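Hi all, long-time lurker, first post. I run a small reading group and we've been trying to get comfortable going from sequence to structure in the token notation. Rather than ask abstract questions, I figured I'd post a concrete chain and ask someone more experienced to write out its structure so we can walk through it together at our next meeting. Sequence below, copied exactly:
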Amino acid sequence: MFSEIPIDQHEKYRYLFDESAFYLLFDYAFKNNLGKLTVDDLDNPAYATYLYTNILFFTGKIDESKINTILASLPPLVAIITLNKNWYDPIESYFKSREGIRFVIQNRTKYSSDSLSLKHLKSITKSLPEGYSVKRIDKQMIKRTPIEIKEHVPTQFGSDERFLEEGIGFCVLDGEHPVSLASSFFPFEDKLEVEIITVDDSKYRRKGFATAACIALIEYCLENNVTPYWDAQNEASAKLAENLGFTKPDKWKLFYYIPDK
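-- Answer (accepted) --
Happy to help. Here is the structure in token form:
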């Protein structure tokens, strides 16, 4: 049903994704000729899918006669994101009825950065415990950063070196060891998708380290005309976003399914 579009023709179909809340990712991907694009009709597409790394976006109006055919084409083991929220119910109904798979729904919340301010960030800044500090990540530091808090670096940047050239991050350090990282999720210019991860150890949890790293990153953004974007994947992330000054929560859903072995 779907035809893959050659990479040099992607721009012709970019309009299908321009109104999306994920336009930041699409803007980067289309500019850099990344991803795999398919459409159901080359001249007048009603449906389109866009596979970027391990994320599959699809868009289009609901046609009752084609729902099962379209949903059957969605692959396993990737994050499935529909740009039309009217698809939520059909997706849930279809995959919940399928046997031999584990179907997962992740409720997420996007936030606006319109109300962010340096004054507010200063007002919530707290001193770190003795022995801890916040620093911008550099060549030496990234080598010491545990893979569990920089998994997006090889996935989205390809290498530590490219991350340092096209991304940015701030770490909370325990002595010289990075334990919490707030950074750009993928290469950026004047817009940045925030990624925040703390080492999964009770020694570093609930200590304000994620907040401290995020404040440093967002202050950098506001001082350098970079717009930060926040997408919360759980309640803790949503609470942190609101504490930092992000507003206008927009709830959405991410889906994926895993075939039973």
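A couple of things your group might point at:
Residues 122 and 215 are 8 Å apart (CA to CA).
DSSP finds nine helices and twelve strands in the chain.
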